[in-house]
Amino acid sequence: MMTIPSRLAVLTVAALSLGGCGAQRASVPPANADADQFLFERGSAEFKDRKWLAAREYYRQIVDNYPQSQYRPDAKLGVGDTYIGEHSTESLLLAVNEFREFLTFYPTSPRADYAQYRLAFAQSEQMLAPERDQTNTREAIKELQVFVDRYPNSPILPDARALMRKAKDRLSEASYRVGFFYFRSKWWPGAIDRFQQVLKEDPEFTQRDAVYYHLAESLLRIDRKAEALPYFERLLKEFEQSSYLEASRRRVTELKSAPAPER
To answer: Rounded to whole angstroms, how far apart are CA atoms 86 and 55?
Structure first.
């Protein structure tokens, strides 16, 4: 099986070949003193029309042939964005590579925050369903944490935080589903451990109402009523809307009205 680095190398060669094939199409009119500007404007026009390959041909010419151009950093970002626009497994891998290269070449650029965000975004677009492997989800979270740490004053910080929440929700849902499988299998200790792990690692999990409920129910099944009650109460306190509200209210009433155990 081809490794990811090897696969990326093959994809990069293929991408360069495609760029070369389109060189004539992206050619600059003769005697044009502002060739880099011309290429950038044409690339941006093609990008606006979602013509990803055509846009990339123009941007790539600037990156490859105009090392001193003021448009080169933006053109490098544009190449990465066209790969995201294509949204295939291969193009997203190439996008990640482009943004990593940008951060290597231009670490102090005013647009370094954008590059880091788009790198993380490209990773997040490769996240799989909760029941599948979550390697890409973890990579997205890692890159988003880099963004938060390095660019706390960035204007796109809210976007990064929203994407972080989405990625963490995906990871937590994957873990919750394992716990729910244990719950349905009536393996209460395994369910309790998994649900508690979700709450410890991601206390802001969007679907934690389900975790509270099934954790509390699991505790009840092994007669740990005193530990179960707070989770039902947290669900009622933190969620105005949840499919578990009615059942949780009944449980709270039952538990609070039950006679205290004799000593």
So the answer is: 12
